[in-house]
Write a structure and sequence with these properties.
Layout: H1 3-6, H2 17-28, H3 32-38, H4 44-57, H5 65-78, H6 82-98, H7 103-123, H8 128-138, H9 148-162, H10 171-183, H11 187-200, H12 206-219
Length: about 220
Amino acid sequence: MLIPILLLLHTHSAPDPVSEDSLVSRISGLGVSELTSSLPQAQGLARGATLLFLAASDTITGKWSEAARQSLDSLYEVGRSPLRAVLLGTAEAIRARDTQKDEIAATLWLGRSFRHLDEGVQAQPNNPLLRIFRINSLVDVPELFHVDDRLKEDCEFLRSQVKGALRKADTGTLMALGSVAWRDGRSREAIALWKLVVARERKGSPDRQTALRKLERSRG
């Protein structure tokens, strides 16, 4: 069912913000096995996004992250858009994660990531998807890199969108807010948000599995 969508956007297509956001959101809901099986047919942004989510969920350091970065960098150069900038910044943040034993290389990747994440969010500040990507990219970055102001800004925006009705918020928003709450030491709030995701999402969904892992670690 997803394969026709994966073939819609090819490398040299001009960016279409609506269809690109929808495509990336849909791919983000796939499990690892679905991502892997769809990769051979994926082209353009679909391929870059698929590689990105494989890299984000990968347990083997560096298996997918450089391929994701190269794919998204090419897409960014031939057709720039706020989403493509943020996806590239996310891939660069994952490269920093995968090269953290080399502090200089990791710092350089983070610098590139910050530039592209900020470029995308500043160009389209009212797009919650871009805010969620920036949160997920920066939430594990050490405090010495001064990312807390960005995280606070993105959280305030997401909270303003849901107007206090967190139970009606989309799963991506809940997961992002939970991650920042945990980083800030607000463990009860984070646990409550992750439990809400577990109760809402279907068994086996990527977000539900991630929330379950976070809850398990919170007990440790």
